[in-house]
Amino acid sequence: MNNEAKPEASGRPIISVRNLTVGYGDEVIMKDISFDVNEGEIFVILGRSGCGKTTLLKAIIGLLEPLSGEILIDGDKVQPVAEGGSERVFRKIGVLFQSGALFSSMTVAENLALPMRQYTSLPEQTIEQLVIMKLSEVGLAAAATSLPSELSGGMQKRAALARAMALDPKILFFDEPSAGLDPVTSAELDKTVLKINHTLGTTMVIVTHELASIFAVTTRAIMLDSEEKNIIAEGNPRELKASPDPRVRDFFTRSAPQETDRS
Known about the structure:
Layout: E1 13-24, E2 27-38, E3 42-46, H1 53-60, E4 68-73, E5 76-77, H2 87-90, E6 93-96, H3 108-119, H4 124-137, H5 153-164, E7 171-175, H6 183-200, E8 203-207, H7 211-217, E9 220-225, E10 230-235, H8 237-240, H9 246-253
Parallel strand pairs: 3-8, 3-9, 6-7, 7-8
Antiparallel strand pairs: 1-2, 1-4, 4-5, 9-10
């Protein structure tokens, strides 16, 4: 799979982060960072545990109010959920959380139908057809009537991915999608991500430190550093592996121990 050609991005920025500073109270996690994500990319935010990957993701999707700076998604400014957010922005994105976050009392089909019923006026028959179509895209059509507890960990992740795709978002965000999965199941999820990106052109933003996934799917990556509180490298992972910066090389060779992650 590592030899599979990556899709070409359009070169048009669909996410723009400008002079962003994020943190909790008086604690600054990332300071004055700027970068773009181009339309159609599989863009990875990587770095050692505790560097602020998930914190940055939360800010981009509006779950954490930045201390300063600006985030634009497809030209619209992201407003924090706590301040009412922006439905126009949220309709453009889907999020696969690390836990999957499926509603345990609902079937897989009901989980997928929920955002369609909440944010569209589609007739019920159309929603049912769309649910099966989304599940088919991730290879789970046969699991529509199952409860999340009846699925394996990998199937739960794919069901959560299908729900994230329910409203045909332009951008999908993933927070440690391989967490808790064995290597084979993780590789299957990587294939699903590539398939969606190739067939639908969906932009992907993935937070991860899993090397196998990084090399398998990434178009471009940024690497965060907890000491500098900024981006210390940007580019294709295969190029970053040969970086003259020992912090970047050490990440790809795993030559230093990792610390507990900041969630």
